[in-house]
Amino acid sequence: MMARAQGATKTIEITTMIRAILLSSLAIGLSACATSTPYGAAAREGAKGYAVQPIENNRFRVSYRDNDAETARTRALRRAAEVTLENDAEWFQVVNAYDDEFSQDRRGGSSGSRGRSSVGVGLGISLPLGGGNSGPVTHVIEILTGSGDKPANARIYDAEDVVMNLTGR
What we know:
The chain has helices spanning 2-33, 69-86, 159-166, and strands at residues 49-56, 59-66, 91-100, 118-122, 125-128, 137-146, 156-158. It folds into 2 domains: 1-33; 38-166, no CATH class. By secondary structure, it is of the alpha+beta class. The strands form 2 sheets. It has a 5-stranded antiparallel β-sheet. A two-stranded antiparallel ribbon has the order 4-5. It is elongated, with a radius of gyration of 23 Å. The termini are far apart.
């Protein structure tokens, strides 16, 4: 009888170890999916990185696609500052900014999930995966560029300051 108890204990220990290894592997796999790509231009439409569309002489649409919404916002702002300086301007005004829901990759979400994915564990418990977003996020900002004295407005940024503060992010 004692041998059976020891055998059952070993089976429980092995099962517990296998579960721990599987959960660790899952956590590593999910974190790898959520890492940001290096800053740079998108290689093609829909790829991660920035894209710039000139609208008028001093008006541009700048977008940045990344796995993390905050990273996409920060890098879109950085790229807007770079575009401003590349066009011999000193400051830019953000006239419109939004996350482009239609560009999100919705694989893994169910119909009507609005890009979110989760796993049901039973008894009404649901675990959101990937921070509530099932794919990359594209942040879009439309800017007007200008030179001379920077107008006093919270939506107007000094391009050199933004590049200096956001480079490396």
